[in-house]
Amino acid sequence: MLRSSLFPAGKVYLSVLVDCFDGLLPSWTISTTPDSKLVNTMPDHAISHLPEGAHPFIHSDRGCHYRWPGWIERMNKAELERSMSKKGCSPDNAACEGVFGRLKNE
What we know:
Blueprint: E1 2-7, E2 10-17, E3 27-31, H1 36-48, E4 57-60, H2 69-77, E5 81-84, H3 94-105
Parallel strand pairs: 4-5
Antiparallel strand pairs: 1-2, 2-3
């Protein structure tokens, strides 16, 4: 999931992957631009560390980044199942929303 924050140096974007089993972040990326490189490199790291034969679900919100051909190609190549939140239903993506909520509190 992608979120932006304003810092003294300007706006930065954070894309995280949350493991819903243990709540850890197996992968994340930060960039000053919300482009395909930011979102596409985030799962690459996680995919490279998956055990052989693992095909987890990747759940995301409905952002355009997760409908880009590069993202879909990565998911299909790694044989990952894609899942998307319903429109306007952030509880569907509670694990990522919780991470961003904790970051805001810190």
